[in-house]
Amino acid sequence: MNRLYYGDCLTIMQEWPLQSVDLIYLDPPFNSNRQYNSIYKDETGRPLPDQIEAFCDMWELDEERERAIRTMPVLMRESGLEDSVAELWRLWMQALRGTQPRLLAYLSYMAQRLLIMKRILKPTGSLYFHCDPTVSHYIKPLLDAVFDHSNFQNEIIWRRTSAHGRAKRWGPIHDTLLFYSRSASFNWNRTFQEYNQDYLDQFFRQSDDRGRYRFSDLTGPGTRQGSSGQPWRGVDPTSGGRHWEVPPDRTLHPDFQHPEGYAQMTVQERLDLLEAAGFIYWPPRGVMPSYKRYLNASFGAPIQDVIWDIPPIGAQAHERMGYATQKPVALLERIIAASSNPGDVVLDPFCGCATTLEAAHRLGRQWIGIDIAIHAVKRVARVRLTERLGLVEGQDFTVEGVPRTVEGAQDLWERDKYHFQKWAVEQADGFVTTKRSADGGIDGRVYFAVPHAQDLQSMVVEVKGGANPSIRDLRALKGALDYDTALIAGLIVMQPLGTTKARNFARFMADAGTLEILGIEYPKMQLLAVGEILEGKRFKTPTVAGRHEPQPVLPGTPAPRT
To answer: What angle do CA 7, 49, 413 make, to 5 degrees?
Structure first.
């Protein structure tokens, strides 16, 4: 069944069997704040507050990235890469550390995931890496190392816009896609695009009662020993270093009827038949004949490594989902049609607004999407899959990694503590912080409006997924509140507290006092268990920024929430 995952593709893909995916398309967010701001705005009704950045640490050289960089040579050797590649990586990363630390963080982030993508790709599989030209020249050596340079197939240029004004350099109007195969025996389907009008006017200039046609060469480069290298009608192709190249069946006009045994005939016999049917043209001057290739028997132009005929998403208003870097469905359909077959498994490990999933579904492929933002997963499931494609969750696809029970939340915490933390904050209508490491008791914030304040105010939120939260956790949260601009603080715990601990926690939180707004009191310190959040309970605050449903509003002030 088709699957949509919430979480880090690194941890999710590690659990999959080897050689289980036919095609991978990835378009990692380059400007992560812009990307996820769009996600939050579309899903919650307003953009991220100015005070917070979208979570995404692929460009941050933090402690976790440093560990990944140090262990990368070992991972490369375990993945079957040669020692020379691992040593090159070590020297390269050492050089970047002092000059471009953010790029170093990004490359190590991608290297970890590309090594796993190689393992899960089938021998006949392919990978397309969609990237900005400012990093494509760094990504290509990495892909050469992981997939082997011999498996590099194409650098594809997509003209994403027609013009872009720049005062001191050429206008940047293209994206780069790097196409690699898993092996030399990869899936490839001959795919065509429509001719543009200029091409038709230039080349299909002749016409007769069969329609418009152009002249095509009947020979190919190189000499041959068989019948294709022998003379026909007094013309010897070998003398010119060429051989006869009979038009393939797919280009033959419907008027031409293959006689029995056509495929077993010599090249000269097939050329005789084509001439008798009026498909061979002999020029008045010269001796080399041409084939009359008719437009109504043509599939179009074979796809090239410069894509100029697919406009950006702005030109496809019906496709828009509000994402800053959204790609058109037609672009993904072309990739999927060329490099996979019906029933194959297509993976997008950074699926964002899920253009890949829609294209795969329309072409009859199975699909898997992964995204690190729960708001993106929710929006994809609701808008892209259910509303647009008419798919039914549980019947046509599943959403995995989003806890719906306390047991599911516990499982997420055990598998990936950071993503449990993010999930808990967002389920409580909050926004996560950017740091994975200890951050002074702040894992996220809930934003709300208060009367006579121009800016949104906030509640700081701390998440504890362990089985034994203590008063020390409350003290740390109180300290964070005291030194922060937030007005109130909330603690999220996995399980409800025992009687004695609940009484002690309640006493400590009561000592912190309350915040009064227009006669309504809000406890300055609050606590919620995961089960309560799953049941719909939220922290008591003024109206929270970013909720879908309208809320009752008192005259001149937001209504409280419980």
So the answer is: 25
